[in-house]
Fold these 2 entries.
Entry 1:
Amino acid sequence: MEMNMKLEIISFGKISEFIGHQQVEISNVTDTDQLKSYLETSFPELVGMKYKLAVNQNMIQSNQSLKNEDKVAIMPPFSGG
Amino acid sequence: MEMNMKLEIISFGKISEFIGHQQVEISNVTDTDQLKSYLETSFPELVGMKYKLAVNQNMIQSNQSLKNEDKVAIMPPFSGG
Amino acid sequence: MSEKKIKNIFVNGAISPAFIADSIAKHATKTAIGGHSIFMGQIRRDEINGKFVAGIDYTAYEELALSQMDAIREEIFLKYPLNCMHVHHSLGMISAGEICLFVFTSSAHRKPAIEACNELVERIKAELPIWGKEIFEDDTHQWKENI
Amino acid sequence: MSEKKIKNIFVNGAISPAFIADSIAKHATKTAIGGHSIFMGQIRRDEINGKFVAGIDYTAYEELALSQMDAIREEIFLKYPLNCMHVHHSLGMISAGEICLFVFTSSAHRKPAIEACNELVERIKAELPIWGKEIFEDDTHQWKENI
């Protein structure tokens, strides 16, 4: 059975230079680890970069399941201050 | 042989409330330890108080000889800042 | 549940010395305070490969940064006996020589204010989703990384 | 021998927020600076045996304090890579809520400024011959002691 999920993707810092704000509809992605693989395939610039995800404004520390309509932020290392 | 020495005494903080700025002429005092004894005899309020001396604007850490016309400051614990 | 208003730490543009003075002056009525500690971040005109930094353009994931800051603020208030804590961070283009971060803590005795201020600065740099794009004088850029 | 001008750290009366703002603003042209650390001492309206402190009257052995401060300044500049160091201490009557000590250090990166500022505050309190007389609202007084 194929699962389809709609996600809103936002990005920041240098990642925003190659991943724009977008809605994606993807299949066979049910958690953040799978999403990372999907992103690194779609945006090879991500491979080897340090980045973190936030889902619905919660920082993701370890793999977490995703649900339809989640808002995922892709964030390079912080450099405030 | 009796030695006479003129010293200028200044004092600060709570010590200035009972020892005023003054010239003293004293005998048989040749170093700061002897001066402390002399001061504590003349000003019994000093006994048991913590205080430091400075001679000619140098803080005294250990006993030091005195000479005629030295300027001696009597200083209670600091409380700046 | 308690109704909680999340404080906005972000200001558009540089933080002016007048703003800082005003913030200090407001504490004159708080006569339980004995010590204030302030940290200010200022944009350096660094030279990198022969080019000079004209300024840093700051962006943030604002909602997430504010909720992270709110959690940090609560933890710091629990850890140190503070009377006050103020944090302001710039967004947008801040020129070399201008101030982009202002952290201000106050306590009855000096140590809690000093320690809380230092800890806040470290946590702001490490934990808030804020990004600085260094703009060179020739309009090229590179992204800053806190190390 | 080098000719050396000893800096005067003493100001008559309280240190105003406007003075502090002016001091901060003067650093905008120093674009090698990345971090500023400030400590300010403020007079507390302490309650002691049912009486409130109206203010503190500061006196100092000025010549000795300035030469001690000069030695401290040199040691701190040798120990930390600082761009700037400024110290101001009030003399005379400073009312509760007013600022009596302003220590301001700046460096390229934050750590030296922060550490130097902290060390300066500790040394100023421990080593400078300055005395504070706490004046109560009923005009009685007691001498402050740093502990």
Entry 2:
Amino acid sequence: MLRAGVEKAVRVNDFAIKLANVNGTGSASANGLLMQAIFRMGIPVSGKNLFPSNIQGLPTWYEIRVNKDGYTARALDYDLMVAMNSQTYERDIREVRQGGYVLYDSTWPLDPHLHREDVTFLGVPLAAMCNANFRESRERILMKNIAYAGALIAVLDVDMGVVEQLLDEKFARKKALRESNHKALHLGFDYARQHFDPLPFRLEKMDANRDKILIDGNTATALGCLYAGATVAAWYPITPSTSVMDAFTDFCKKYRKDPETGAMNCCIIQAEDELAAIGMVIGAGWNGARAFTSTSGPGISLMNELLGLAYYAEIPAVVMDIQRVGPSTGMPTRTQQGDLLECAYASHGDTKHICLYPANPAECFEFAVKSFDLAERFQTPVFLLSDLDIGMNDWVVPRLKWDDSYRPDRGRVLDAAQLEQIQKFFRYSPEDENFVAARTLPGVSSKGAYFTRGSGHSRTGAYTEMPDEYQEVVDRLLRKHRAAAKFVPAPVIERRSRAQFGVVTLGGCDAAVREALDVLQSRGIAADFMRIRAFPFPESVEQFLNDHEFNFIVEQNRDAQMKSLLLLETGVAKDKLRSICVYGGFPLSARRVTDRITSQLGELTERAVHS
Amino acid sequence: MLRAGVEKAVRVNDFAIKLANVNGTGSASANGLLMQAIFRMGIPVSGKNLFPSNIQGLPTWYEIRVNKDGYTARALDYDLMVAMNSQTYERDIREVRQGGYVLYDSTWPLDPHLHREDVTFLGVPLAAMCNANFRESRERILMKNIAYAGALIAVLDVDMGVVEQLLDEKFARKKALRESNHKALHLGFDYARQHFDPLPFRLEKMDANRDKILIDGNTATALGCLYAGATVAAWYPITPSTSVMDAFTDFCKKYRKDPETGAMNCCIIQAEDELAAIGMVIGAGWNGARAFTSTSGPGISLMNELLGLAYYAEIPAVVMDIQRVGPSTGMPTRTQQGDLLECAYASHGDTKHICLYPANPAECFEFAVKSFDLAERFQTPVFLLSDLDIGMNDWVVPRLKWDDSYRPDRGRVLDAAQLEQIQKFFRYSPEDENFVAARTLPGVSSKGAYFTRGSGHSRTGAYTEMPDEYQEVVDRLLRKHRAAAKFVPAPVIERRSRAQFGVVTLGGCDAAVREALDVLQSRGIAADFMRIRAFPFPESVEQFLNDHEFNFIVEQNRDAQMKSLLLLETGVAKDKLRSICVYGGFPLSARRVTDRITSQLGELTERAVHS
Amino acid sequence: MPSIAKPTAIHPSLHRNELGLTIRDYEGSMSTLCAGCGHDSITAAIIRACWEISLAPHMLAKMSGIGCSSKTPTYFVSGAHGFNSAHGRMAAIATGASAANRELTYIGVSGDGDSLSIGLGHMCHAIRRNLKMLYIIENNGVYGLTKGQFSASADVGSKSKKGEPNRMAPIDSVALALSLGATFVARSFSGDKEQLVPILKAALSHRGFALVDVVSPCVTFNDHAGSTKSYLYTRNNMLKATETDFVPPASEILATIGRNGAVSVAMHDGSVVRFKGVPPDYDPTDREKVLDYLSEHHGKGEVVTGLLYIDESVPDMHELNNTPAQALAKISFEKLCPGSAALDALQEDFR
Amino acid sequence: MPSIAKPTAIHPSLHRNELGLTIRDYEGSMSTLCAGCGHDSITAAIIRACWEISLAPHMLAKMSGIGCSSKTPTYFVSGAHGFNSAHGRMAAIATGASAANRELTYIGVSGDGDSLSIGLGHMCHAIRRNLKMLYIIENNGVYGLTKGQFSASADVGSKSKKGEPNRMAPIDSVALALSLGATFVARSFSGDKEQLVPILKAALSHRGFALVDVVSPCVTFNDHAGSTKSYLYTRNNMLKATETDFVPPASEILATIGRNGAVSVAMHDGSVVRFKGVPPDYDPTDREKVLDYLSEHHGKGEVVTGLLYIDESVPDMHELNNTPAQALAKISFEKLCPGSAALDALQEDFR
Ligand SMILES: Cc1ncc(C[n+]2csc(CCOP(=O)(O)OP(=O)(O)O)c2C)c(N)n1
Ligand SMILES: Cc1ncc(C[n+]2csc(CCOP(=O)(O)OP(=O)(O)O)c2C)c(N)n1
Ligand code: SF4
Ligand code: SF4
Ligand SMILES: [Mg+2]
Ligand SMILES: [Mg+2]
């Protein structure tokens, strides 16, 4: 799957466009419509929503990349800019590639200083047309978006049938709106068809998406929780995690209403803060329910203390951390992988947690289920580290599958009958081969009663302040964490012949890194690929790293947090690990990776020459 | 300073005793009295209080080690056990070294199964004597302690004059109590003199403590805050940090009352929780006051979010973390160095903090002052990581010194005149050679007004969501943290001729590790010593590590947290670092270190032989 | 023997309750609190109440935070699971526990520090959710376990052991709870088991959140002259606004109107709380009147005790959430997982 | 131009106040809130109040948490330092700021989410400390910035945009504050600047903690039919219990007793708050009466507004702590450090 090196006269299904809007003006639905239409045309596509931490009036962008070969990481070169935000004209017009196009609202003339010789300006009198055709001011604003969508449909050859179908579905019960949309769409469409020549890039139907869906990671995560049988969810609203709980709530309404009693087989609690949210999850986990919270960095910080309690008292808890840019409030609507260390070692004292790193919504679904199994099997908090890019953007992924024979791994929980059979129950012994002891649930039998505490306790569960008794328990916890390495998702490894080094990444960097490796390969540089999917690290992780003279660790944070974890938690020598950190807050693109690898390789060669 | 290898007939000033009591019975003052008397006799001594997390009725121990050569780390071999707690008789009697002594209350006969052939039992009818001599039941209980102190004074040759003097001082204003104490003391003393032969170890006046004081780390820390000019202190009670604020409060009463107005030049706030406490410190730091909080692990966890705010918004804050055993509530009255990673990287997102690691109360004083200078110079949180052992035990340390020419380093703060001189003030630029930008304080001038935020900001201080602007600031923060390495306390390094390896430690492990190195030296194994005193690490830390084929890192936590920090934050190769972790909760003793080094060296040799 | 013997919560009675259990079956391990600590008396009252209402030990969940008070769940009903969690977080953890299993009875034991400082937000929100539980504040005006700092319930002018007066206005959990719409509010005194036991029984029958604030002197740090949370002060200033009888569901109810306008309140579970000796102008079901009464007597320095307010009409968290009668934790996986067919169907929405 | 123009807080007046400043000198940067957001009107009221009382911009410290409301300090008095801190922690940070520098005037702006959920404990304890500050809750019944979830101030039955009713009892900041002993409690409406401005001015003169809860409709998420925090609902159900005039210190006071039992309250700083049009049975200095009045009208679904309660007799945090009149941050180091001689002397105690 090499990327075509030579640009053809008309590029089919290989281009990127960017739409610059003002947030709160309703552009999202127009942009989503385009994205979905392209998806339905069977073409590999990705959409990245770059929105502000604000409700109305600030710049927002949407990027669509179409690529027949399936490279759908964020592009940096835009063939077409839809410039709808006069505040950002300057920057937006600058960003178009040489020979590219700018579509703008020509109701007002463009300031001459914005002009560029090397791009083509496509003026569409959007406001004028909409003002002429719609009466309400809100409608006029909204319909401008649909109108530019119409113009794009024309110039890009989007299948109008598909679009009309989508509008039919969307507005099945809102006829008037359907009307307006139709009208606006055709205003733009007709204008563009009349005024513009075909562009040198366009769309053509393919059949790449037959077994694909278009879904965001947070919805998929919620779906995973639903399917895993989670019944208790506690949360505090925070961008970009909120839509996990919104989706879970919607799914529960649909699937968790008891047909007989009408009762809801779930309890979703909007907590007073994140300290409470994790407390509720722990309380529910203690009581045997599958429980989770969803949050982002600031929430993780607040949960630190209780995460240590769950770790030490060995209570299952699942935390969905949809990462955003830190530190502090940071940039709530930008993406980053900045909580890797925080989650791996959350809380004071010696603690280590299980972390899963999905790369896309499909894995969000799969890992969400997995996280409950791991939390219950290992009686400990499990983090699913997603991020804003994965969580809030729509991704094209393979259809989700469900194995109806799946049964939750509840871990070692003694029921009344099992309790009957033992002499005496001790909470923290005996342990099994994974260093897990059986627990009991309240309400089952007095014989299983014990006192849960975050204070020093011995293997029997008794309060202790004695070094040896204390140590016995925390040493087992360490072994237990290590044992989990065999149960977490193994890394994805792809080897190439004559690979010169390894490139390691995680999470949402996947697509960009893969694309980068293909690009490098096309330049004669071959590298093996590994995507880490969990901590503790399975043995194969260390193996891969050791198999290569050196490895680049590509990640989205400033402090090389994954590289740090690898340093600390594998036996790999330092000089085998090199860092590539991209952390400005936008989704990763392949060029950032190729550039950095190339320049680091250059340095290496230079060093080799000089030494 | 080699430790005498051969035991003389009568060991003078070289023995260890342990006193086993029930807490809440007033034993602390008797034990402290003994300790202080020995100190006044000019003999190197240490006292370790091993007390429960409870107010009354649980086992508590006090250990006194006397060593003329100045080895005052915790001993593990007890020459004499004062067994006052029948609940722990069994364990306590077991702990006495062969040939040692047990002093117990012979009012009740000792259960025969407790008997040991190889120790001598010294029965003193303490309860009987006290019941006969005192009327009130509380007094009877309290005086039993003084009575056993009297017996010890007799058998150990404590200077009775010194003891009487101490009691005079202590009860200068409580005549009746002075009486009772005198009586009880002599009950025990007389009984012992009449009934027991001299022991094979005893005390003799020395002159080792002329320039020394007996002080606990928390008092010294508070004194440092006082001298540094801290005016705002906010805290939430938590063991073992509470006495920092208690001492600060007492010092303020004495030294901070304005002689003219009677006003208190300080504001000490008992906050509603640790989130509030750090918030208050940050608010005060923002406003230009030197402000601090004192807490322990659980508090640090709760402070995580706001620590990230202070880091990112660049606000000075000083946090005294008096570490105790984690995770979670853990063992509140046991010691550990378990918050090293938590503090170094506190908060979500990419963050790094300045940490100081005092080894004893003298350094607590010095570093407390230093922490304010660093916090203000680098406009960032600074942690002083003390622990329960340092903080709550009385240590013999050199007299504290104060340089009256000291002036606080307030860092870059522009006053009204300076503001006048500049064109326009931007909060985060220009930066100086340490990557610090000037700040302004509210209330000075509108020209310096800016908006402090934990959300994304550019170098000017303006809100941003743009990658480049964001990155410029966080990149500077990273450089700023590195720059601090030149300003933090350098490591203490001691080299020996023909050293075969390095031994590295931090904080309260100091005495035990030094003693261990002397012991090893006496066995022909020479090692260099380094005690790390701060993070970010000064260059000399890395230099030392690299200078040795390998280094043992001795620390008191399970997960080798200091070794981890060294791995991550220096260029040192992994195989140069070997870990020795002792983390049961009691202060470190030399034997633990020698044993572990010896066995690891054994393994190394074995491996070398087999390869 | 030289160690101090601790009062264990032992009751001589060998009577058996409906479950055939004696009161000793409701005891826990030996207390490690200071001899004379008020908390131990509350423990004894809890033991009695649980025994008297024939609570099945394994159907009880004992929740607490951190503090001397929070240690006490170890000292009662050792046949029940207990959770000594983290400082201030008990209400949140109990909320989650209840969400998972509403079939259990929840007794939370907290301190005035645990509840009114670090845990204040959680307690207020548990009240707001009307979480069904008995929430006891063992109120001693100080932080016992950390050695005697004033807590937020310390009264203005109350003196510390060193003699320094507290100067900040107290947070009165009773007034606070009433202002937040709490549905069961009581105050009692650890020294008055007669009053406390029926209150606890009523609280355990309450439909939602039952706050029972019990003045519980800390003999070690706050039982001196000058303290307003000492045994002496409380005894001297205690005003019993109400006295109650608890009549379990099965019993025959004789809803007599007593002398001073006694009232009976029918509980959601069919039991009845009978108020005896209620003052003429007092109506424990009228929030305003209760507030008026409290502030009037509070002004006089009186410690008003009794079951002060009760409202059985407000749905609890589970009712509000329309959860099933069975514990969510026990719902079979088959009912929870929509299965592959549903997933296939659903995914049509994602195209 | 296609972008939406934002209302900037511009006032045509070019009058100058005592400091010679026009109202424009009290403006901030352009609002980025939704057009029509209630918060912007409160910003305008703050601007006017600060201007009218001639507050020196650099002597103001603007504190906030996180939320749409918490963004607003950027939009007023750009000559003052501002601190947009972390969600829910504003009260704590303001406490520390005030501890360090009591010479400044503190205006805290918070939201109902910021104050009544995550920050509830801090707000309650700031009240308890009687921290001298103006604390504004811009109360819209929802979390604006995170897109419309119910907040703890949402009334029972108030409907979300999707039409779902809130079922949990609200936390009413006014009732809560009163029960905690707050010394200045007001409620107003962002749509009523006439009422709000004098309240803000009075609050800025108050001796301690001044809570001003302002109903401030969120046009984007909570201004629909069925919401009890909409413009329409608030206008229709607002009851002005009191109206006030603020008379600054220097002015001549004409303490006339108005028709409906008007009262004047002398403020600690010498200014006077004059209540006009107070209902006959209403006394803004009598906590009980205020509470009674509130609950009576609350029962009728009315939104009672006005400066509701005021007590100038309670010392603020600094008075309680006996701090000097000067900012602690400005005390010279020489006064703070006891010096080497004292250290030598002191160390005799450590031998
Ligand atoms: C996060 C955290 N902060 C502080 C502490 C220390 N601490 C333990 S108990 C306690 C207060 C106890 O007071 P209260 O709740 O009134 O209980 P009491 O001991 O008086 O019964 C504190 C501050 C802690 N355990 N955890
Ligand atoms: C610790 C933390 N949790 C959650 C958030 C997300 N968050 C930002 S604003 C907000 C609520 C805002 O509601 P409110 O205070 O009522 O302000 P409004 O926007 O309605 O004015 C939340 C939950 C956050 N920033 N920090
Ligand atoms: S310290 Fe006080 S509260 Fe704690 S056990 Fe002792 S008497 Fe009870
Ligand atoms: S979302 Fe609501 S609160 Fe936020 S700015 Fe818009 S209208 Fe105001
Ligand atoms: Mg208490
Ligand atoms: Mg709000």
